[in-house]
Amino acid sequence: MSELEGLKIPAHVAIILDGNGRWAKAHGVPRAMGHKAGCTTLEGILEDAARLGIQYLTVYAFSTENWKRSEEEVDALMQLFRYYAKKIVKKACDNNIRIKMIGERSRFDADLIDSINYLEEITRDNTGMTFVFAVNYGGRDEIVRGTKALLADYKAGKFELDDLDEKLFGSYLDTKGMPDPDLLIRPSGELRLSNFLLWQSAYTEFYFADVLWPDFNRDELVKAIEHYNRRDRRFGGR
Ligand code: IPE
Ligand code: IPE
Ligand code: MG
Question: Which of 24, 104, 156, 208 could form a disulfide with 34 if both were Cys (CB 3.0 to 4.6 A apart)?
Answer without folding.
Answer: 24
